[in-house]
Amino acid sequence: MSPQRSRGPALRLAALLAGAGVLHFVLPARFDSIVPKQLPGEARHYTYASGVAELAVATTLAVPRTRRLGGTLAAALFVAVFPANVQMAMSWLRSNRVSPAAKALAVARLPLQIPLVTEALKVRRTARS
């Protein structure tokens, strides 16, 4: 795939990460609730830090000169947030306040990290050095 043709996947990942990053600041309580309880400190700090990380990685993916680095960082970020996704699925499965459909989506979301990581690595591989 040429660097020009790899632009689309990079921009799609950038949009996904930018949207998620903004949501960390607009709806922080939703993200606070999925921060793994084993982590020390306040959940809100992790919520804001991950929002900043998502916005920063989105920027590196959007800029052609930093796109290769962005692919690497995006793959690492998708792996790093996986424990929070697991925490969310476990919490929602235990909750009486979450609908069965939402519970199913939380569980179904877990394997979706695989194509996100592979797409990020593809962006890394096809970006200009």
- In whole angstroms, the N-to-C terminal distance is 14 Å
The helix content is over 70%
User: How big a fraction of the residues is strand?
Assistant: under 5%
Ranges with pLDDT <50 over ≥5 residues? none
Radius of gyration: 16 Å
**Number of E-type strands:** 0
- Structural category: mainly alpha
How many domains, in number, for the residues? Answer: 1
Topology:
Elements: H1 7-26, H2 28-32, H3 43-62, H4 67-80, H5 82-94, H6 100-109, H7 113-126
Description:
The protein is mainly α. The protein has one domain. Helices cover 74% and strands 0% of the residues. It contains 7 helices and no strands. The chain has helices at 7-26, 28-32, 43-62, 67-80, 82-94, 100-109, 113-126. The longest helix has 20 residues, at 7-26. It is globular and about 50 Å long. The mean pLDDT is 92.
How would you describe this structure in keywords?
129 residues, mainly alpha, 7 helices
Short description:
The protein has 129 residues and is mostly helical. Helices cover 74% and strands 0% of the residues.
